[in-house]
Design goal:
The chain is mainly alpha-helical and 236 residues long. It is built from ten helices and six strands; from the N terminus they run αββαββαααββααααα. The N and C termini lie far apart (49 Å).
Length: 236
């Protein structure tokens, strides 16, 4: 099976723990998925940065995001992806276009982050990349468990990210894996949840971040803001 073509969908799959057969505990996954959608749109030329604010760019008709597409169709190697057929990208570009003012990247990373995981999960389930089991705990509390259908495909995604983290000129790195590496670190997902791991790769990540674009530092700021709020709440 080919991986899904969009950054949000690939990031969701990378948040799956292949050893424990479950999603990693990733409290900032929703923010990271929103940042992945913003990165996808930025790299496709549908969003631009204007003094730290997000500005929509009128797309050509064939590049307009929509909710339809062929599941499992890969992005062409070495070419810039277009955010077609991705629900979260379509949602984000709609929100930015409907806004009465240009807002910061962090604003859009945080907005509706609580529902981002469900949006991406449901699309992956519909495309048969994952299997979702829905149940109720004690007959009352809804719960879901996710299982990836093609473990080898997820391993390939991990290898691609590892390759850009550990070899080759950062400026020549494939923007897809480079962006995923930067998003995983900024969102503290999987192995990148460890501060030690992030510090060990600090120099490399600093080189990869410009490849991804402005949504990555916005994600890092949003995560730090959430952590500060959690610490203040615990202290209070």
């Amino acid at each position: 099976m080919q991986p899904p073509p969009s950054l949000p969908a690939q990031l969701y799959l990378l948040a799956y723990d292949l050893e424990r057969n479950r999603m990693y505990r990733s409290p900032y996954l929703g923010r990271a998925l929103r940042a992945a959608a913003a990165t996808e749109l930025y790299q496709a030329g549908l969003l631009t940065d204007e003094n730290g604010r997000v500005k929509p760019v009128a797309p050509r008709a064939e590049h307009r995001p929509h909710a339809e597409g062929r599941p499992g169709q890969p992005a062409a190697p070495g070419r810039r992806r277009t955010p077609t057929a991705d629900e979260l990208c379509a949602q984000l570009i709609g929100e930015v276009g409907a806004s009465s003012r240009h807002r910061s990247w962090k604003h859009w990373v945080k907005k509706n982050q609580r529902t981002a995981g469900r949006v991406v999960r449901d699309q992956l389930e519909a495309g048969r990349w994952i299997r979702v089991e829905r149940r109720r705990i004690l007959g009352m509390i809804p719960a879901t468990s996710v299982t990836v259908r093609d473990r080898a495909m997820v391993r390939r995604l991990h290898r691609e990210v590892e390759q850009v983290l550990h070899g080759g000129p950062a400026g020549r790195a494939d923007p897809g894996p480079a962006s995923l590496a930067a998003l995983l670190a900024a969102g503290q997902i999987g192995a990148m949840k460890s501060g030690r791991a992030r510090r060990a790769l600090k120099g490399r990540l600093a080189l990869l971040e410009p490849v991804a674009g402005p949504a990555v530092p916005a994600l890092r700021a949003a995560v730090r803001e959430a952590q500060a709020a959690e610490s203040a709440g615990a202290a209070g």
